Amino acid sequence: xNNGINTGGLVIDFVTSEYYLFFLPAVVxxxxxxxxxxxxxxxxxxxxxxxxxxxxASGWHVILLLISTLVDWNAGKxxxxxxxxxxxxxxxxxxxxxxxxxLATFKYLDFIIESLNFVSLEIFGSSGLDTFGxxxxxxxxxxxxxxxxxxxxxYRNKNKPYxxxxxxxxxxxxxxxxxxxxxxxxxxxxxxxxxxxxTTPYKFRLGLTLIFYGLMKKFLIADNVAIHVNTIxxxxxxxxxxxxxxxxxxxxxxQIYCDFSAYTDIAIGSGHLLGIELPENFKTPYAARSPxxxxxxxxxxxxxxxxxxxxxxxxxxxxGTRVLIIALMGTMLLGGLWHGASWNFVLWGFIHGLLLLxxxxxxxxxxxxxxxxxxxxxxxxxxxxITQFFVFMTWLIFRxxxxxxxxxxxKTYIGIDAKWDIEExxxxxPEIKLLTFAIVMFxxxxxxxxxxxxxxxxxxxxxxxxxWGLLCGAMLSLAFLFKPxxxxxxxxxxx
Length: 495
Fold this sequence. Notes:
Order of helices and strands: HHHHHHHHHHHHHHHHHHHHH
Distance between the termini: 13 Å
Number of strands: 0
Number of helices: 21
Largest sheet: none
Number of domains: 2
């Protein structure tokens, strides 16, 4: 990744050889060489290596992680120690203000200034504020939500504070999920580090399987289809060809899923090697049959966080249609903005909120439901087609930053002023078109087979040693044999 941070020339993340040849083996070896009553030392080693990893990833921004950790550690202790509501609320507000203040400053300040300048230019004909050019700290959206949930849960009496500061610091900074999730709840992590940190032969094998599987998805699928995506939305391709726009949205949908889920697989796999189980973040989202079903399958740790800490506190579905609209749309708008400082993400969140709202209102219509029940299979398939049509349409908003290109792409996607030109479609694609067609078909078939099997990666890990070794070797071979010359950084590093 390239975020403008100088850490002495060395950068470590999940696509660098240094991570697999030196960093991860060193952490695993150090943790498991220390056994028999040395649990606290195991935690300290994981904590030190996590901060080292983050330093290589984001330089001095590691200080922001330390600030969030210290703030929420003290706030949690103070809230738990007091029975006075005013004191508890004061410390909760302190935690929220510091965490959200850091997030707003480093992620949204320049965006706010640019938006004010645009309004000022439109109304007064001039813009007077300069942006600060603040670099986005890697992973700040993830660890901020993670440490905030710790304080909020203590305030709600749903969890007790950690007994040891180093345990909490390790939870906040655990390197596999630090940069791009999944967002882990404090209690979930706490239960796994109560005693000596250890793994099992099966978990170790599962960890390696997940890492190999993630590398295959990243190099073979995500980085190859990215070539088509970049070509189509570079500004040179004809945006009135519906075939090209559909193909571009399909490829980007596959790219962002394989890219992000690959990171998650590697993160969970790295955790298994250390005896720490991280929560699943994806469950075949492109098999979803409704907008609600999609968000039960996509970025699960974020969607559940938004549900528990935004949607339900805003009223959820308990207060009638008006409250539902406010809670649902407010949650999705903020969820969209969480992804990035851009009006594109706000629009993306708005459309997803609208889709969820429409689905919720239709589901509440008993007559319509009874009509659907006449032919359940056909209606399920219809729901699937409609859901995926709009999901892939919203990926255009996620991918295309240029307003003119985005508007043209959206119009073409829904068939407005669009043409159907196969020859132009083929001529506009890069030379690797046959390889990409094959990769897309490989993904589509594999995605549904994986869903039916309960997860291909889990099935691989359950095989005997010989078959497991052959399958892992095949995944690694596919990853590096078809790896493009240019590796794309993980998409969610931007958020």
